Amino acid sequence: MNINKVLIVGAGTMGQQISFQCAMHGFETVVYNHRSPSLEVCRQAHQSFAEHFQQVRGVSAKETDAALDRLSYSTDLPSACEGADLVNESVLEDLAVKQPLYQQLCEYLPQSSIITTNTSTFLPSQLADSVVRPERFMSLHFVVGLWDAPIAELMGHSGTSEETIAVTTDFARAIDLVPIRINKEQPGYVINSLLIPWALAAQSLVTNEVASVGDVDKTWMISTGMPMGPFGLMDMIGLGTVHSVLSNLAQASGDAQQRKDADYVKAHFIDKGKLGVKSGAGYYTYPDPAYASPGFLR
């Protein structure tokens, strides 16, 4: 099976980056979102990515213009699904949102389409019952800051066919990412199995007033030489996603600290519309976060 047309469902931070990566590597790419304003934000992000690729990564204007020409945007799901060979979903981490969406996708997609999810929270087996052809469903998980962390984690469920895994692996390579095969279902894949405990530890330090956001990030950045700390990264991921992950973990584990952390994020950020980079404010204020200033590490 050849992948020619890609449908990205969700126009948030990850949907923006995944769709641009696909278009940059020659794929006709449609971004679907039910809200026109979200698609306009996505379109503007793609323009910014094109400028970044020209100015920072040495890509020609001809190449980025061609990528932008391959991108289209739609609020109409039936037309967005038409002819799509592979779908990747990056919507809210909520089963009540994802499951009905998959049922709708299956109404409109060609029978040969592969449906993949970029979920950071759920196992593919938790979602597979919502698709008509579960053998053509799996996780294809990307890392925020896609071109700086060029990996794609591939995780099937017990019913995913080897053909689906093989085609999706080839697709990951075709968009210039390193495929990481997850051999059995693992909450968090590889990257989040490492990342989530780190982020949870950081959040608990702030929730419990042990240290400030700035001092936690400063400690990490000085100690490791990394360009941002856990709170800068959480802002990039999006605090809506962070809150969903924390809430799901707290519900699954019954852990009082995780519930306290989820409630903290909700009260201080979600309820105030502060969702991180995409809203202009979260733990930091954007587009010029304090952690990027020359004096931050002093």
TrEMBL record:
Species the sequence originates in:
Seongchinamella unica
Q: Name one Pfam family in it.
A: 3HCDH
Every copy of the 3-hydroxyacyl-CoA dehydrogenase C-terminal domain together lies at: 188-286
Domain 3-hydroxyacyl-CoA dehydrogenase NAD binding residue range list: 5-184
Judged by the first EC level, this protein's enzyme class is oxidoreductase
- A GO MF label: NAD+ binding
Q: Per the record, where is site Important for catalytic activity?
A: H141
- Report the InterPro entries cross-referenced here: 3-OHacyl-CoA_DH (IPR022694), 3-OHacyl-CoA_DH_NAD-bd (IPR006176), 3HC_DH_C (IPR006108), 6-PGluconate_DH-like_C_sf (IPR008927), 6PGD_dom2 (IPR013328), NAD(P)-bd_dom_sf (IPR036291)
Question: Any idea which UniProt keywords this protein has?
Answer: Oxidoreductase
UniProt keyword Oxidoreductase present: yes
Question: Which terms under GO biological process does the entry name?
Answer: fatty acid metabolic process
What name appears for this protein in its UniProt entry?
3-hydroxyacyl-CoA dehydrogenase
